[in-house]
Every structure is written in C-alpha cells, then in structure tokens.
C-alpha cells in the first residue's frame, strides 16, 4: 500500500472496529470479536519470538494461564482494582517469561520447543496442586473490569484499546533496527553474531516482552470467560497460537492477525466446523504449508501488489515523441 494511503486506511480500520458494537446486536458475535482481540494481544508478542526471531515456542499457553489465574486471584480473591490487576498480570507474565527464557533460550530449536511445552505442563500441574489458591480442578470465578468496561461493549472496547497499543508496540519493534536484528538472528545466528548482535540478550528481551503480552492477554481472556479451570488452558491452545502465526505468515504484522481471525471465527460461525475444530486446524495448516508456505498474509500482500501494478499499467503515460524529437535536435525550449 502506498505510504500516503496507510494512515487513512489505518484510521478507517480502527474506526470500523470501534463502531462494531453499534452495528451488531448479537452479543455472541461481540464476545467472539473480543476473544479474537484477546488472542491477538498474545499472538502479537509471540509473533516477535516465532515469526521474527525464529524460536519455536509452543508453550505460551502456560504464560496465558499465569496471567489469567493472577487476574482471578488479584481482582477476585484479593479485591484489587481490575485495571491495576491487569498491569500486574503483565508484569508477572514478563517475570515468568524471564524465568523460562533464561535457562532455555540457549537451547537449539527442538529442545527449546520442548522446554516451553514442559513449562506449560508445569503451570497446569501447579494450578491443580495449589487448590487453596487456584481452586484446583473446580477453578475460579473471574470478576469483570470496572465501569465503563463492565459490559460486553465495554469489554470489547477495552480489548480493542489494548490490542491497538500492543500492535503499535510490536510494529515499532518489527519495523526498526530491532526487527532487522531479529530477522538476522532467525536466518543465521552465526552471521548475526559476526555483525555484533547480542543474540541471547535480544532473544531474552523479546521473550520477556511476549511474556508481558501473554500476561495481559490472560487477564482479558479470563474476564471474558468469567470462569477458568485448568482444563481451559490445554496444550492444544498453545499449538493454536503457534499455528495462527504459521498460517498467517511469519515475519509480518498483519499476517498473524489474519490467522487469528480465521482460526477463531470461522469454526465458530460455521457450526459443522466447530465440531471438527482440530481437523479444520490441521487441514488449514496442511493446505497453507503446501500451497502458500509464506502464509495467507503474504498472499494478500502479493494480490494487493499485483492489483497496484496493473493499475499503474492502466494509467501509463505515453511519451510525447514529437517534443522528445525536438529536444534531441536542440530545440527543447520550443513548445
């Protein structure tokens, strides 16, 4: 998209999203849109780890659970202000990300993926083991945010505000030197190290950032669900976040968002697909890997570029051959 059109398109897109509660009366669809936003808050941070840095993290559902249970305990059991509790969940998610990333980010890809999966399993077992705090297998009820975010419309707008803020942060990281350094690490750690990039520090920083977004996403997700149990945070959810990035397209901002929308909304809106959720995810992943390995987001970018190229061709300027001939003859000043 042309640079001059980006800002109006961005403002228009945000205006359309903000107006969604006014042109839909279906509370379930509004809840689904808010759920997509909560997932996106996590995936936007995870995209820096998976899509840009190339780290195979499949255990972010553990960080999501940390944020969700922390919000339920702080805002519910301890009576904290919900907005303050959400910020605390982000800090706790970042701390948990640091605890996980410090010993595991030096591991090669497969072993790092196993470490993140083990972390998710440990979090699930700890929620069961500390039943006096987390409710054990019966779970915990989760309070709403305070007014004006205590209605379905208010929840949606809160998720939208947080989603826009996180998207702006991740876009700034991805489009500047940090993003280029992450791509260099993803493509060749040896080449990146030869350029003076601190590989471990860079990976740890973006992993902590993804932990913060996962903690905040956990607070939003728990409030939307209103009740959480250990069964809410199954391992398949961690794979779901990972697949959203792969299907949407690594190394872009808009691609994983498209992946979140498709994988969250389509099975819910098309009833037969809801019963075949895992089959649908697997089939979609297989088709994308075979047909569009760069992801759906990259495919959309190519379609837009192709349309712009054709538009430029349709408005091609014909050369003024007589004037060019006069210029070559030394008569350029003659009209």
Summarize the model shown.
Helix content is 76%, strand content 1%.
General description of the model:
With 335 residues, this protein is an all-alpha fold. It has 16 helices and two strands. The chain has a two-stranded antiparallel ribbon. It starts with a helix and ends in a 7-residue tail after the last helix. The mean pLDDT is 83.
- Shape descriptor: globular
N-to-C CA distance: 37 Å
Q: What is the CA-based Rg, rounded?
A: 24 Å
Which secondary-structure class do the elements indicate? Answer: mainly alpha
Main attributes of the structure:
mainly alpha; 335 residues; two-stranded antiparallel sheet; 16 helices
Task: Draw up the topology in text.
Blueprint: H1 3-18, H2 27-52, H3 60-77, H4 82-104, H5 109-129, H6 131-134, E1 140-141, H7 152-175, H8 177-187, H9 189-194, H10 199-225, E2 227-228, H11 235-248, H12 254-269, H13 271-275, H14 277-291, H15 296-314, H16 321-328
């Amino acid at each position: 998209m042309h640079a001059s059109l980006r800002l109006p398109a961005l403002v228009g897109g945000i205006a359309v999203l903000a107006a969604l509660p006014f042109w839909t009366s279906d509370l379930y669809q509004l809840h689904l849109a808010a759920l997509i936003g909560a997932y996106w808050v996590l995936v936007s941070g995870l995209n820096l780890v998976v899509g840009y840095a190339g780290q195979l993290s499949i255990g972010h559902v553990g960080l999501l659970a940390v944020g969700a249970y922390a919000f339920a305990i702080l805002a519910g059991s301890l009576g904290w202000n919900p907005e303050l509790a959400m910020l605390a969940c982000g800090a706790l998610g970042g701390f948990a990300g640091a605890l996980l990333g410090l010993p595991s980010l030096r591991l090669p890809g497969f072993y790092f993926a196993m470490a993140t999966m083990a972390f998710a399993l440990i979090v699930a077992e700890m929620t069961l083991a500390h039943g006096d705090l987390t409710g054990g297998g019966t779970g915990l009820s989760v309070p709403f945010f305070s007014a004006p975010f205590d209605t379905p419309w208010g929840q949606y707008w809160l998720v939208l505000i947080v989603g826009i803020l996180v998207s702006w942060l991740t876009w700034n990281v991805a489009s500047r030197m940090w993003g280029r350094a992450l791509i260099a690490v993803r493509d060749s750690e040896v080449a990146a190290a030869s350029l003076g990039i601190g590989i471990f520090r860079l990976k740890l920083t973006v992993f902590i950032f993804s932990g913060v977004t996962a903690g905040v996403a956990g607070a939003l997700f728990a409030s939307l669900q209103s009740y959480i149990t250990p069964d809410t945070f199954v391992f398949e959810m961690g794979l779901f976040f990972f697949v959203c990035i792969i299907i949407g397209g690594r190394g872009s901002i808009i691609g994983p968002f498209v992946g979140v929308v498709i994988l969250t909304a389509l099975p819910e809106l098309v009833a037969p697909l809801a019963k075949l959720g895992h089959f649908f995810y697997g089939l979609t992943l297989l088709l994308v890997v075979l047909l569009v390995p760069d992801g759906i987001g990259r495919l959309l970018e190519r379609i837009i570029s192709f349309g712009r190229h054709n538009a430029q061709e349709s408005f091609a300027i014909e050369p003024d051959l007589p004037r060019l001939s006069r210029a070559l003859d030394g008569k350029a000043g003659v009209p």
